[in-house]
Amino acid sequence: MEHHPRVSIVVGSFNSLTTIYRRRPLVDILMDGIHRSTYHSYNIVIVDGCSTDGSVPYIQERFKDVDLLKDRENYGLARSNNGGIMFAIKHYNPDYILSINDDLIIKDKRWIDKLVDVAESDKAVGIVGCKLTYPNGRIQHAGISGLLTSRNIGRGQKDMHQFNRKVEMEAVSGAVFLIKREVVDAIGLFDANFMIGFDEEDYCIRARRAGFKVVYDGGLSITHLEGSTSTLNNRKREGLVYRRQKNYIYFAMKDFPICFKLLAPFVAIANSVISIETKDRPRALTGIRLKDKPISRLIGGIKGIVAGYRLYYFTKRVDYVPGQCVVISRARIPTSK
Q1: Are both 138 and 263 inside the same structural domain?
Q2: Per-residue pLDDT tens for 287-335?
Q3: Which whole-number Å values give the CA distances from 7 to 179, 188, 336, in the listed order?
């Protein structure tokens, strides 16, 4: 019988019941895509970040093949994922951790197969990501380069299969993030100080420094409803900009060379108020424009920069604490086919 490496799918979820796309809850859309998979050896761990919309009893009742955990408080996505990873390692001893967002539309039945095939093709491959698109069909992510600006390659371009390639990258998006078990054993968990955002770039840097390759596979395309959950619960622009720039400065101080560290606050200010690309418009100098409500964004950006430095210099890093998650229910139906 053909051997299929064990894959533990870890989903960080928040209010995915009342976040609706085309009249369906995000959690239903995601689980449909997972259940259509042709892969033969996987399990699903969902970690709820203290949802307030009834997601927990809904998932518990509807999806019998899920191990459902709930954080004792809202720690942020990175630490929630860490709780799911630790649970998966303890109970399933997987060969791979597949960390995914809760706002994906997965149509390719071989999506897990494709990710694992890339990882299995080379012992040095430690992390695999894929092409992400917006619902309008334009590209959201075809790998990440230029970590000073953390640029999503291809963003806003029409998908003409120009990024259907397998190539080593500086980083890939955490929305679909396959991690070889050896990487977790070597470098540990996500840095939970990030809360949400830039944790995947940091993890890719750490993996590459440990000798692993980060690979983007453009042969797999998944639709990502970028920011659906976080946008719903952080409506104020200032708050969203604050969180992004806080994480960006922490990322810069932790991972950038000294010359980039000096440039980082200026990049953060520019990113707060200036748009170069959108989901409908590729990156171009001719497309530079001010974002809406620039004063509010500027205030949020400056506050975020200050908070980022404070986070780096004065905050103790806590990636995972035993007991941070409550086990709501164990999977009652085996997932592996």
Answers
A1: no
A2: 688 888 889 899 999 999 999 999 999 999 999 999 999 999 999 876 6
A3: 9, 18, 10
